[in-house]
Task: inverse folding
C-alpha cells in the first residue's frame, strides 16, 4: 500500500468547496427513482440520465470532487462512444465505485441485515482500479426500532466494513466507510445520537483491528437527526451541534474527511445542516457531502426522461451542487 497516494486522493475528495456525487443507485433503487418521474428504467435511460449529470460542466468542474458509480455505469459508454468514466475524469473529478452487493437478513437478529460482497472483492477491486476507480464505497445499514439495533448486528456490520476497507487499501483504492443509521423510525435525535455513537465506536475499533490506515479513508456517516416519523423534528442548529459533538467523540483526527449521506433529508435541510456544521468550525477533519437524493431529486424531476429537458436537468443539478459546495465552506446563505 502506498499511503501517501491514498492520503492525497482522500484529501482531494474532501477538499473545501467540493463534495461527492453518489450516483451509485443499484438497479432496484434507480428503478424506484425513475418510477417516481414516470421513466422506464432501461440500460439506455440509466445511461442517458447519468451522462446528463456527468456532462454538467458547472457542477462537475466546480463542485464535485468525486462520483460514486454503480457497476453497470463504470462499464458504460456515452451516446458518442466516450466511456462515462472518462467524462468524470475529463471534468477533473475522481471516479469511485460502490462495491457492496446489498444486504441480507441476519438469521440471529430478526429485522436486521448484514451487507454482503466480500467474496472475491480483491479481484473485483483490481478490475475497477484498472478501469480508473480510485475510491470505493460500502454501505452498512443499521435500523432503529423496538429492541434494535442489536450488538450482534452492529458488530457484524462493523467487521465487514473493516474487512472491505483493508481490501481497498491493499488494492490502492481509498475506502469510503459508510455505516448508515437509518432515519426511518419515530425515534428522537438523542436515540439517533446514542445508536450512531455506538456504531461509530465499533466501526473504528474494527478498522483498527484490520490495520486500516485512517489517513487513507473517508467516513460517510449519517447526521444525528430525529426519525422521519418523530413527534418532534430537531432544528437545524440542534442537528449541527449534536452531530459535531458526536463526531468529535468518535472519529479520530487522522481521518482526512467526513462526507455525509443525505439519508432522506430534504434538499434544503441537507444543505443547511452541512453549512451549520461548517459554520461551527475548528474541526480536525473536512466536512462535506456525499449526497445521492439531496443532489439528484431536483435534476430527476426537471429531466423527466426527456432529451429536451437535459439543459434544465443540468441546471437543477448544478444549483444543488453549488449550494452544497458553499455549505462545505460554511458559506451558504438561506
Ligand atoms: P443519500 O444521500 O440519498 O442517502 O445517498 C447517499 C448514499 O450513497 C447512500 O449509500
Result:
Amino acid at each position: 500500500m502506498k499511503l501517501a497516494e491514498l492520503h492525497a486522493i482522500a484529501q482531494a475528495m474532501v477538499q473545501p468547496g467540493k463534495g461527492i456525487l453518489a450516483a451509485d443507485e443499484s438497479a432496484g433503487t434507480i428503478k424506484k427513482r425513475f418510477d417516481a418521474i414516470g421513466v422506464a428504467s432501461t440500460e439506455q435511460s440509466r445511461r442517458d440520465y447519468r451522462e446528463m449529470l456527468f456532462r454538467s460542466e458547472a457542477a462537475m468542474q466546480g463542485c464535485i470532487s468525486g462520483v460514486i458509480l454503480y457497476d453497470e455505469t463504470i462499464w458504460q459508454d456515452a451516446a458518442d462512444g466516450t466511456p462515462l468514466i472518462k467524462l468524470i475524469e475529463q471534468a477533473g473529478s475522481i471516479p469511485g465505485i460502490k462495491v457492496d452487493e446489498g444486504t441480507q437478513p441476519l438469521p440471529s437478529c430478526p429485522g436486521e441485515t448484514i451487507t454482503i460482497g466480500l467474496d472475491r472483492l480483491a479481484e473485483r477491486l483490481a478490475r475497477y482500479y484498472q478501469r480508473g476507480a480510485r475510491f470505493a464505497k460500502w454501505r452498512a445499514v443499521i435500523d432503529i426500532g423496538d429492541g434494535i439495533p442489536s450488538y450482534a448486528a452492529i458488530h457484524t456490520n462493523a467487521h465487514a466494513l473493516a474487512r472491505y476497507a483493508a481490501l481497498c487499501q491493499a488494492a490502492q483504492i481509498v475506502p469510503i466507510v459508510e455505516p448508515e443509521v437509518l432515519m426511518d423510525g419515530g425515534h428522537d435525535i438523542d436515540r439517533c445520537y446514542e445508536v450512531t455513537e455506538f456504531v461509530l465506536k465499533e466501526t473504528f475499533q474494527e478498522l483498527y483491528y484490520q490495520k486500516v490506515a485512517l489517513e487513507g479513508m473517508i467516513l460517510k456517516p449519517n447526521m444525528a437527526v430525529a426519525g422521519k416519523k418523530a413527534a418532534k423534528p430537531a432544528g437545524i442548529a440542534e442537528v449541527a451541534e449534536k452531530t459535531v459533538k458526536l463526531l468529535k467523540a468518535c472519529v479520530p483526527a487522522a481521518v482526512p474527511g467526513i462526507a455525509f449521506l443525505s439519508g432522506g433529508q430534504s434538499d434544503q435541510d441537507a444543505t443547511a445542516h452541512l453549512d451549520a456544521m461548517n459554520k461551527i468550525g475548528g474541526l480536525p477533519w473536512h466536512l462535506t457531502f456525499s449526497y445521492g437524493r439531496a443532489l439528484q431529486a431536483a435534476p430527476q424531476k426537471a429531466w423527466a426522461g426527456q432529451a429536451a429537458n437535459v439543459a434544465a436537468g443540468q441546471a437543477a443539478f448544478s444549483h444543488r451542487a453549488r449550494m452544497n459546495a458553499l455549505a462545505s465552506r460554511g458559506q451558504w446563505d438561506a
In short: The mean pLDDT is 98. Residues 22, 139, 178, 261-263, 291-294 surround 1,3-dihydroxyacetonephosphate (CB under 6 Å). The CA atoms of residues 19 and 295 lie 11 Å apart.
